[in-house]
Amino acid sequence: QEPSSKRVKTLKKSVASFANLISPGKPSRTSKIQHSNGVNAGSNPGSGSTPGKRTNSGSVTKNRRSKLWCETFDHQGVEDKELKRQETMFELYQGECDVVDDLRLAKQTYRDSMMTLKMLSEEESTRIFGKLDCLLPLHENLLQHLEAQRNSDGKCDAIGHVFLSWFPTLTPYDEYCANQADAKGTLDSVVEREARVRDFLQRCLESPFSRKLDLWSYLDLPRSRLVKYPLLLKNILKATPPEHPDAIQLEKALAMVNDVITRVDDLTGERQSQLIINKLDFLDEKQRCPELEQSRSVICSGQLKSSRGTKLQVFLFDRVLVLARNVTRHDKSYQVYRQPLALSSAVIEPDEGGRLSGSFRGGILSGDKAKYAFRVRSEDTGFGYTLIAADEHDRKQWVNSITEAAAKCRSRRTSSAD
């Protein structure tokens, strides 16, 4: 068993030497900060992302070498099946060690240092780091219980019961994950505004302790770890004989964590949806359609152009498609462009080439640009919009996302009518 005190001492050593990173002079204006993805790919209001198009982002496991159980403990005489089972449980344990170390790093090296150096106000710190203080003790507690299950020979007989007791304590995850869209937006705003913050984070990024990961990679760690538990438990269950007492416990734990993820997912979607709605500036009260108020999640968002070349920020909610323009007015970020289109009556016309370009004289739909255009219209009212994507990949992703969302809305409407 590896004593957790060793990890704490190592972390404290890196934090103690952290003062050497702080620039005594003026921050460099040329330093660039690494930007990462938002909370959910394609749905962060500030990311300008396109549905289904992923950008490279660092994993918090970067530059870490995973230890194997067989490299840590004597495995002579252990059968292959049992060896595999011990390896899957040890993989989960090793990952939990890393989570605890990274959460301590986010708390001590980033948040505490930035507050000590007065780089953040209390409000900014709360909005960016959220309930980080509540999450660290949860994972420390899980790590202690996992270590307690290990016998003197390094084997673990069972761990399913540990998670059955631990998963019900994850209520702080609700607020932490639901706050991530606001946290990312606040962090980006501070980084853009404050040169000292950019300098500080750049120096962290270039230091060995960060493993070349930016602050957001660490703040996004709890969410990414939560959604990984089902896979980790499935691997352990797969390596566990059906007759083993832990098999039933693992199945129950797997069902429990999936319920937790669904709950957190729903709450996060609602919070993100409301966050964007609050940033919309309506020129006409008629634009405040019921479908927008009823929306509970943002499926994706990104930039498209109108048939006349107007740059638009497009939000695909679960019940309505909203076109907007970037503005700064009355603390709003987006001005609603035309009437939002209810998905329950939306249909896609993915026409290409001359058929579309010939229909819009005076617009920019011609040549190659027409190939990336599609039209969405309402079957109820007949009005619609022609939108132009950056490339064929984007066009297909938008068409597929809108089509799927519209189908779900029509299904809900049919079920309600029945």
From TrEMBL:
<dbReference type="GO" id="GO:0035025">
    <property type="term" value="P:positive regulation of Rho protein signal transduction"/>
</dbReference>
<dbReference type="GO" id="GO:0005085">
    <property type="term" value="F:guanyl-nucleotide exchange factor activity"/>
</dbReference>
<dbReference type="InterPro" id="IPR001849">
    <property type="entry name" value="PH_domain"/>
</dbReference>
<dbReference type="Pfam" id="PF22697">
    <property type="entry name" value="SOS1_NGEF_PH"/>
</dbReference>
<dbReference type="InterPro" id="IPR011993">
    <property type="entry name" value="PH-like_dom_sf"/>
</dbReference>
<dbReference type="InterPro" id="IPR035899">
    <property type="entry name" value="DBL_dom_sf"/>
</dbReference>
<keyword id="KW-0963">Cytoplasm</keyword>
<keyword id="KW-0344">Guanine-nucleotide releasing factor</keyword>
<dbReference type="InterPro" id="IPR051480">
    <property type="entry name" value="Endocytic_GEF_Adapter"/>
</dbReference>
<dbReference type="InterPro" id="IPR055251">
    <property type="entry name" value="SOS1_NGEF_PH"/>
</dbReference>
<feature type="domain" description="DH">
    <location>
        <begin position="84"/>
        <end position="267"/>
    </location>
</feature>
<dbReference type="GO" id="GO:0035556">
    <property type="term" value="P:intracellular signal transduction"/>
</dbReference>
<dbReference type="Pfam" id="PF00621">
    <property type="entry name" value="RhoGEF"/>
</dbReference>
<feature type="domain" description="PH">
    <location>
        <begin position="297"/>
        <end position="407"/>
    </location>
</feature>
<protein>
    <recommendedName>
        <fullName>DH domain-containing protein</fullName>
    </recommendedName>
</protein>
<dbReference type="GO" id="GO:0005737">
    <property type="term" value="C:cytoplasm"/>
</dbReference>
<feature type="compositionally biased region" description="Polar residues">
    <location>
        <begin position="28"/>
        <end position="61"/>
    </location>
</feature>
<dbReference type="InterPro" id="IPR000219">
    <property type="entry name" value="DH_dom"/>
</dbReference>
<dbReference type="InterPro" id="IPR001331">
    <property type="entry name" value="GDS_CDC24_CS"/>
</dbReference>
<feature type="region of interest" description="Disordered">
    <location>
        <begin position="19"/>
        <end position="62"/>
    </location>
</feature>
